[in-house]
Amino acid sequence: MKAYHYFTMIPTKFRYIERGLFDRVIFLLQNNKLDDTKLNDDLNIVLKLLQITVNNINKNKFNIILKKIEKKLLKKSNYNLVIRNIPRYAVSVSTRTEVPVTYQSLRDTINQFGDIKSMYINYGVSFIKMSNNESTHALLNNMELGNNIISTEVI
Questions:
Q1: How many domains does the chain have?
Q2: I want to staple 136 with a disulfide (CB 3.0 to 4.6 A). Which of 61, 67, 97, 113 is the partner?
Q3: Does pLDDT of 52 surpass 80?
Q4: Is 51 helix (H, G, I), strand (E, B) or coil?
């Protein structure tokens, strides 16, 4: 069975445990359509955890496994840079007012460092495929954006 089909069997009520991470894993599974034995084993573990009643789920273990799956999927995807802790609002340099950080504003900002081929944002995390990902990582990692310190990771 392909990896994506495992997650389609998980009831959406389990998203509340780690909604952003859960949604990002679903996105990566949908777009990659991978068939990887080790990944399928990890997904089986997630399903077994979810077969336990909702109150008895070990949230930390669920979170650790989902992060492990996300990392594996990112390595197999076309994305080569991850930005975490993106704020919802930041101060605009030109107007000195607080403005929402939108897909377009983030894309325009990151595009100044290298040509973006594709980008995905979900719950303060962005996956980016771009040229110059390593130099962009060096410039942006631990930079303050709004009230947050963003972190970047080269994939």
A1: 2
A2: 113
A3: no
A4: helix
Spatial distance between the Cα atoms of 152 and 155, rounded to a whole number of angstroms: 10
Kindly indicate the confidence band of residue 53, based on its pLDDT and cuts at 50, 70 and 90. very low
User: Do 144 and 116 belong to one domain?
Assistant: yes
| pLDDT at site 1 | 47
Question: Residue 91: helix, strand or coil by DSSP?
Answer: strand
Residue 45 has pLDDT above 70, yes or no: no
Q: Which residues touch 65 (CB under 8 Å, ≥6 apart)?
A: 42, 45, 46, 49
**1 in Cβ contact with 38 (< 8 Å):** no
Residues 150 and 88 in one domain: yes
Helix, strand, coil abundance in the chain, percent, nearest 5: 50, 20, 30
Q: Coil, strand or helix: which one is 98?
A: strand
129: helix, strand or coil: strand
Residue 65 shares a structural domain with residue 114: no
Looking up residue 96, the CATH number of its domain turns out to be: 3.30.70.330
Same domain, 72 and 101: no
Confidence of residue 15 (pLDDT cuts 50, 70, 90): low
How confident is the model at residue 149, as a pLDDT? 85
Residues 121 and 139 grouped into a single domain? yes
Report the C-alpha gap between 129 and 115 in whole angstroms: 9
